[in-house]
Amino acid sequence: MGTAHSAEAGTAREGPLRREKKHVIVRYVTPSLPRMSLGLTIKFLGTVADLFLPWILAYMIDKVVPLRQIPLILGWGGVMVLCSAVAVSFNITANRMSAAVARDITKAIRHDLFAKISCLSCAQIDRITIPSLIARLSSDTYNIHRLLSGMQRMGIRAPILLLGGILMTLSLDPMLTLVMAGMLPVTLLVVYLVSRGGIPLYTSLQEAVDTMVRVVRENSAGVKIVKALSKADYERRRFAQANEEMTRRERKANIIMGITNPAMFLFLNLGLVAVIIAGAYRVNAARTQAGAILAFLTYFTIILNATLSITRMFVMYSRGRASGDRIAEVLALPEDLRLGRRDHRQDDVDKGFHISFEDVRFSYTVNPEQRDLLDGITFALKRGETLGILGETGCGKSTILQLLLRFYDVAGGSIRVNGDDIRGIPPAEFYRLFGVAMQKDVLFADTIRENVAFGRELSEDELRRALRFAQAEQFVNDMTEGQDTTLSSRGANLSGGQRQRLLIARALAKQPEILILDDSSSALDYRTDAELRRVLREQFSGTTTIIVAQRVSSVTQADHIMVLERGRIIGYGSHRELLTSCALYREIGESQMGTAVHTGTEVHTGTAVHTGTARPAETAAGGTRV
Fold first, then answer.
1. Chain segment 399-450, per-residue pLDDT in tens
2. All residues at 6 or more sequence positions from 565 whose CB lies less than 8 Å from its CB, including other chains
């Protein structure tokens, strides 16, 4: 019953989602319809003026020139000049308007797409992938721009030239028009069949573009390790493979879509040959005139070019439609992390709990056969307490932080801050509580000042204090331009320890209520790390702090230490308690710090804390014997 209900609910959601996806691009075109209508009207008038030129020429050759009246010839010549001026000026004006409309619509789509991407949940980003989002924001919006611009420029002109040319030839010689028109149904059938197969081909091509963007992005992000391991040839082969696959799909799409032009030329030129042969017999039989044949051939060229323009429009439509569907897929994504009702538990507040996890379960996959990454995580922190989290790689340390920040929603259980379930706290209110320095945080290509402030209004005192607390003030002052020094992208012109200290300064800048440090001191030397921990104890005593660390020395002074193994808590307590109660913690401590447990006596190398005696050991960091 539960499965059936879920399937029915999924189907019920899928219908509106498909409808939204279908109309999402139309929503951006609708506000510009008045401007588009004006531009299309101007384009229509300019195209009609173009159509009259061959007819006027034929009339002059057959009717006016034989009269040998110069004023009449000059008058009709002036009419041709006037039509030419109207055609040129109106078409230029309409093209400029169409370019402006396409620009504004694409700008709005790109703006909303970027805003939507910024609001996607981590689960949605994981599913679509960042390279695909980059491609949709760049190449797919470019295809939409080409589609909108091309449809306005040729979408009205080409059909009018085609239909108008046929009507004009009918007025000149209906019999010759029928000869030519016999080729049009076959031509249009070819265009329809080819364009129908082009949309899935271009969708497949854009997926190959996603793959190539991913390879380029990975290579550029990992360029140092590529050089260090001398794997440039390997990366070139990866790129060549992705590039070749994209080229293969583009070649296949272009070959299929390229059938239209030769088919157009073949069928229409066969029609032209038939027209010339039939026209020769009709002129010889005095059933038509030379001027009409000359105008007819001109109109035939116009019809041929119009038909070719229509085929190009179908190519642009196929590519733009595929890109539009990909953009619409992102824009139509429902809000994943919806705001629930405010579920407040006063009991937590009465107990003084600032943060509490209650039987939290979570998995990145929806496979029911795969065990949860986190299972039964339960703990509580009072305001101002510090929690250190240790464990092997992949045990779920960073995942706990991501759940606390509500980057993902829990699969079971609940997380509360100040007694409120975080799923019911408005984002603007919720994220003001946090200062965060994550494991893979980014420094931007901007000044140190802007990287620390990060769009927040920071006074000079607040900025200096944040740098001082993060142990970054000295190296920043040593720089030529100080806080106004411009960093390279991702802080490439800084050392690893300098980058981490600036990230910590960013987290501390606004005196957060909750401080999260995810392996943010791994590049710091022991002395700087110890000084940072001292500052956190003294200057941020009222801040609840959660530290994910690889080094035991980073969490020895924490009020609580959590040890994780395979997504479960196997140890929870103070440093002293865990040395006796948790074998894994003791093993980590001995391997890193030379910590020995002998009936309550211990020695901490690296923290300069000595009680009792201990056997000699070597630190993992530098091999210093104690």
1. 899 899 998 888 889 999 999 999 999 988 898 899 888 877 788 888 888 8
2. 391, 392, 395, 584
Amino acid identity, position 283 = V
One-letter amino acid at 117 equals I
Q: How many CB atoms lie within 10 A of CB 243?
A: 16
Q: Looking at residue 14, what is its pLDDT?
A: 41
Check residue 494 and report its DSSP letter: S
Q: Provide DSSP, 558-604.
A: -SEEEEEETTEEEEEE-HHHHHHH-HHHHHHHHHHH----BTTBEEE
What is the architecture of the domain spanning 10-331? Up-down Bundle (1.20)
Of 245, 338, 298, 238, nearest to 61 (Cα)?
A: 298
Q: The domain 346-611 is classified under which CATH number: 3.40.50.10330, 3.90.180.10, 3.90.1100.10, 3.40.50.300? A: 3.40.50.300
Q: Are strands 560-565 and 568-573 parallel, antiparallel or unpaired?
A: antiparallel
Task: Kindly list the domain boundaries of the chain, sorted by start residue.
Answer: 10-331, 346-611
Q: Is 215 exposed, middle or buried (0-12, 13-18, 19+ CB in 10 A)?
A: middle
Q: How many CB atoms lie within 10 A of CB 461?
A: 8
In the structure encoding, which two tokens stand for residue 492, read together?
Answer: 């490439």
Q: Which residue type is seen at 578?
A: L
pTM over 0.85: no
For 341, the token pair is 């009702």
H or E element that contains 107: helix 70-119
User: 595 and 604 in contact (C-beta within 8 Å)?
Assistant: yes
Residue where the block lists tokens 């290509």: 445
Tokens in use for 519?
A: 């392996």
DSSP 8-state symbol, 486:
B
State both tokens at 274: 């038939």
Give the burial class of 616: count Cβ atoms within 10 A of its Cβ; 0-12 exposed, 13-18 middle, 19 or more buried: exposed
**Do 201 and 194 touch, CB atoms closer than 8 A?**
no
Q: How far apart are CA 17 and CA 325, in angstroms?
A: 12
Query: What residue spans of 454-568 are helical by DSSP H?
Result: 460-469, 473-478, 496-508, 526-539
Which H/E stretch holds residue 348? helix 346-350
Q: How many CB atoms lie within 10 A of CB 477?
A: 11
